[in-house]
Amino acid sequence: MNNNNIRKVVIVGGGTAGWMAAAALSKVMKNRFCDIELVESESIGTVGVGEATIPQIQVFNRMLGLNEDEFLRKTCGTFKLGIQFVDWGRKGDSYIHAFGEVGRDMEGIPFYHYWLKEHLRGGSQDIGEYTLTALAALRGRFMRSVDAGNSPLSNIAYAFHFDAGLYAQFLREYAEQRGVVRSEGVVTKAQLHPDSGFIESIHLDDGRIIEGDLFIDCSGFRGLLIGETLGVGYEDWRHWLPCDSAWAVPCEGDGNPIPYTRSTAQAAGWQWRIPLQHRIGNGHVFSSRFMDDADARTILLRNLDGAPLSDPKLLRFTTGKRDKFWHRNCVALGLASGFMEPLESTSIHLVQSAIARLLSLFPNRNFDRVDIDEYNRLTHFEMDRIRDFLILHYCATERDDSEFWNYCRTMEIPDTLAQKIEQFRANGRIVRANSELFNELSWMEVMLGQGVIPRGYHPLVDAMPEEMFVGRMREIKSVIERSVEAMPSHKAFIASHCA
Ligand code: FAD
Asked: Which PANTHER family does the entry link to (predicted)?
C-alpha cells in the first residue's frame, strides 16, 4: 500500500449529495482503502426536494449494483420518459422533451432532418409522433426494453421520479452496510493548516473534532467548507436564470401516475408536477424580482391535482456555480457546488458525474495541482453547457404576457447559446461538444418545442428518392405507433414489478 494514499475521507452533509458520495466511495473502496465518515445534522435537515432524474442515473445505480425494482419500491418511485413543457413557447402550446431515440436515422443522417423536410413542406407538425417515448408518455404506457431486434422496443430510454428523502435513506443504508460511519452533529468550524491552508479537521458543536485528508462538502446551499471556510466565490447566473425561489408541496395522487414530469410555465416562472406511487410532488419555481411570495404560493395551490398533504415550503436559491469546485483538499458536491434550478432535473446528475470525475482523478495526499485543475475545467464546461440548455427554454419564447417573459425573451444570452440557436435556425444542425450532457436530440426537441424552426435541413436528405422517403416516413411512424400499443400501462407495469 502506498503510504501517501488518502487515509480518511470526511463528508459534510447527508442530503442526496452526501449519501450518493458515501455510497459510491464505499462501493469502490470496499471498506479496505480508507475510512469514510459522514457528518450530518438532523436539526438542520436537508433541502428535501429533488425527485426527478434523467436516464444517466441508471449508470449510477448499476455501478452500485442496485436492484432497480427494489430501489423503486423503497423510494415509491415511478418511471419517467421525459418532460412535458406546457405554455412555454406560447400559451396553449405543449411539447415533450422525451428521452431516447427519435424516429430512425437513415443513411447516417439523424432522422429529425427527414422530419424537418416533411415539416417544412407542410407535413407533420409534431416530431413527437415519431418518438416512442413521447407517444408512450402521453398514452400512459411504460415497459423496459426487450430483446426485439430492430424494434424501438429494444431501446427504451427512461429515468425515475422518486421520493428524495427515501432515496437518501436508501443510500444511507447501502453506505453504512459498507462501512461508512455516520456522525450526528452540527459542524461549527473547520481548522486549516497554517501553511498550506488545507482543511485539517472539522469541529462539532459537542466538542468532537474529526480529522481527515480529503473533505467533501455536501452541506447544501451554504457551502460550509468550500465557501465559508475556504472563501471560494460564487458566480451568479440570475441575469440568465432569473428564478430564485420555489414553493414546494406534495399532494394526493389518483393512483394512476403518468410516466413523465410536467412543467407548466406561469407568469413569473413555472410549476412542476412529479408523480410518485403514493403522492404527487409539486413546486412553483419563480423569480422574486417579478412575483411576490404570496402570489406564487396561491398559484401553486390553485394548480394542484389533489389535496395538499402539508403546508407549502419556501426555498430560496441563487442560480450559478462556484468559481472552483475542488480547492486544496476540499471537493464540493451538490448544492454546495452550484445550482441551476430544477427545470431539466440535472442536479442529481451533476452530483453523479462529479463523483465519477472525482473517482477518475482521485488524489493521494500530494493533491496534484494538475488533477485539481482538470477536475475544475471539466466541471465548468459541464455546468456552462447545461446552463445554456436551460436558458434556451426561457429565451426562445414568444410569450409577452408578463414582465418576466418580456425580460426572458429579450435578455442577452451567452455567445455559446446564441451560436447554437443560429446554427439550428440555418439548417437544423446541432453540434454536440465533447462530453456535453444533452445530446443533439434533446437540443432539437427543445428548440422545436420552443418555436425555433430551422429554415432548412441537411442537404443530403434530398439524396433519397421521393417515393422511398414517403414510404419510409410512413413505415417508421406506423412501427412506433404499433410498438406503443404493445406496451402495458405505466400503472400495470409498476403494479407487477415495483409497487
Ligand atoms: P441538502 O439536501 O441541503 O443537504 C445538506 C446536508 O448538509 C444536510 O444533511 C444538512 O444537515 C447538512 N449540513 C448543512 N450544514 C451543516 C452543519 N453545519 N453541520 C452538519 N451538517 C450540516 N434535483 C434533481 O436532480 N431533480 C429535481 O427534480 C430537483 N428538484 C429541485 C427543486 C428545488 C426547488 C431545489 C431547490 C432543488 C432541486 N433539486 C433537484 C436539487 C436537489 O434537491 C439537490 O441537488 C440534491 O438534493 C442535493 O442536495 P444536497 O445534498 O447538496 O443538499
From this structure: FAD-BINDING PROTEIN, FLAVIN-DEPENDENT TRYPTOPHAN HALOGENASE
Q: Which residues contact 369 (CB under 8 A, 6 or more apart)?
A: none
How many helices, marked H, and strands, marked E, lie in the chain? 14, 21
Residue 102 class from Cβ within 10 Å (0-12 exposed, 13-18 middle, 19+ buried)?
Answer: buried
Asked if 320 contacts 237 with a C-beta cutoff of 8 angstroms, the reply is yes
Neighbour tally for 374: CB within 10 Å: 15
In angstroms, rounded to a whole number, what is the distance separating the alpha carbons of residues 288 and 290? Answer: 5
- The percent of residues above 70 in pLDDT, for the chain, comes to 100
Q: What is the pLDDT of residues 427-439, one digit of tens each?
A: 999 999 878 999 9
What are the residues whose beta carbons fall under 8 Å from the beta carbon of 173, sequence distance 6 or more? none
Q: Ligand 1 pocket check: which of 38, 42, 44 to mutate, most ligand atoms within 8 Å of Cβ?
A: 44
pLDDT of residue 30: 86
Catalytic residue among 74, 80, 117, 324: 80
| 222: number of Cβ within 10 Å | 15
